[in-house]
Amino acid sequence: MAAGTTRQIAHFDLDAFFVSVERLKNAALNGKPLIVGGSGGRGVVTAASYEARRFGVHSAMPMKLARRLCPEALVISGDMESYSHYSRLVTEIISDRVPVFEKASIDEFYLDLTGMDRHFGCRSFTDELKQTITGETGLPISWALATNKLISKVATNEVKPNGQLEVPSGGEKRFLAPLTIQKMPGIGKETGQLLLRMGVETVRTLSEIPMLMMFNLLGKTGIELSRKANGIDESPVIPYHDQKSISTEQTFSSDTIDLKFLHSRLVRMTESIGFELRKQNRLTGCITVKLRYANFDTVTKQRTIAYTALDHTLLQQATQLFEQLYDRRLLVRLLGIRFTHLIPGNQQISLFDDSTAQVRLYQAVDSIKNRFGENLLQRAGGSFAERLEEKKSR
Hints:
Elements: E1 9-14, H1 17-25, E2 34-37, E3 45-48, H2 50-53, H3 63-69, E4 74-76, H4 80-97, E5 101-105, E6 108-112, H5 122-137, E7 141-146, H6 149-159, E8 164-166, H7 172-176, H8 189-197, H9 203-208, H10 211-218, H11 220-229, E9 246-256, H12 259-279, E10 282-293, E11 298-308, H13 311-325, E12 332-340, E13 343-344, H14 356-372, H15 380-393
Parallel strand pairs: 2-4, 7-8
Antiparallel strand pairs: 1-6, 1-7, 2-3, 5-6, 9-12, 10-11, 10-12, 10-13
Helix pairs in contact: 4-5, 10-11, 12-13, 12-15
């Protein structure tokens, strides 16, 4: 970017995305309070329509509480395959028109339009893109245009649903000033309560606190919040095509036709990179299984899947690919698995049919793995391969 060039960053956010997709599939749901999530007694809210949000319903809330707050709401278990399909449609539309964009999650995008105003207005382009997305997919979407990612995201949240807003260069602090601190990204529940006890209720007040005081209060986080409160954010738009894969493969100490061993090795490898996926707070939308036979012929098979980071879903898909790929007449030399089409997100997004207990189980297992190493906990099928390999190497 040339010196002195003002950045132009647009943030696009699909309005109540899961709800909007469900309404595309069933127009009778339009205008009604709708909750997407686990329908069981211990289920979790994954998404809520704006009609349900007026009653205090929000994502990650226990379904029992959501039903008490909004007893008239319709509850749908959710369809991750449909949501992934529409997410990819929107991604393709943006990719065809914008050279540099970041897919921040399944339903939001950052577009770097810097320099585009020399050819045509960025606001006109952004508005035209919104109309194209809605026209081609039927999904409502909101956008905001500003000089950085922070301002554009906060502004989008202010104009949803189905809104648009441009915050001009130089107007960042003025835009943020009257907002409550809870609307500032990076301020969680505990930090928010601490600031409120200090009498800091608006971003304007937060911006007036000396940076040294913020550092003494919250360390490096305090410095970052001070910069944000003053409208400063230099984080780049990370090009979507630069998202890396997560993969692993193993060449065996001896070629094998032992199906039980191959299956258990697949379990162990899938668990390992599934754990890495969750550590990076990402979801995968594509799985590839790779086999190399004793004659060095190498074959792969891949499948586009609903975005997920959950081991049991990843294992099911990987096993099906392996079964389609494996030629039982040949010895196997190498086995590999790769996750691609990565986007930011967490396992909560896939838990439409899972209970809060299962959510906590994944969190507990990952916590133990982070603390003591990922080999401490693993499925029995995966540990079989470890023992067999050790025996062969003796």
